[in-house]
Design brief:
Number of strands: 0
Largest sheet: none
Order of helices and strands: HHHHHHHHH
Shape: globular
Oligomer: single chain
Radius of gyration: 18 Å
Length: about 170
């Protein structure tokens, strides 16, 4: 019942638009400040490796993630210095414009979980909670945005646009 409300209701679409704009603004400004102010993730990565998330017994909880940071992310820091700020900016832009909303939110959640696994709590739990609401709502989250035109266009050009889908849009 709640899922139908999220995915089909016009009032829900308006509430989702407010949530989407809030998250979009947060992502866009975070990424834009990193692009314009210079960004180097090496300090963050070194800190996440030196102080990994530990359980009550004092052992690392996400040793596989620390291994990933140490063996892949840090040696390829130039790639991450490009991907993180531009990824945040594009996620924010997608959410602000309501364009490819579910894709933008999916990648936003991937980044939120990456920060979370590295030990950064901050506002990530709230962003993850709101992000899952946007993701669960699907098309309705971008209904008052560019998705209103972009999603039917994509469906039509990929030949998945049937009369049944057209009636739902």
């Amino acid at each position: 019942m709640f899922n139908n409300f999220l995915r089909e209701n016009k009032i829900s679409a308006a509430i989702l638009t407010i949530i989407r704009l809030y998250l979009g603004y947060s992502w866009f400004t975070a990424g834009f400040h990193k692009i314009t102010g210079g960004f180097d993730a090496s300090g963050f990565l070194k800190g996440a490796i030196a102080n990994p998330v530990k359980g009550p017994d004092g052992n690392m909880v996400y040793s596989w993630y620390v291994n990933f940071l140490e063996s892949f992310a840090l040696p390829n820091i130039d790639v991450f210095n490009f991907i993180v700020p531009w990824g945040e900016t594009l996620i924010g832009l997608g959410l602000l414009l309501g364009c490819l909303t579910t894709a933008a939110m999916f990648f936003g959640l991937v980044m939120n979980f990456s920060f979370f696994l590295a030990g950064t709590v901050s506002h990530n739990p709230t962003d993850i909670f709101l992000g899952f609401i946007i993701l669960a709502a699907g098309f309705n989250a971008g209904k008052y945005g560019l998705d209103r035109w972009v999603v039917p266009f994509i469906r039509k050009t990929t030949k998945t646009y049937t009369e049944e889908n057209k009636a739902a849009a």
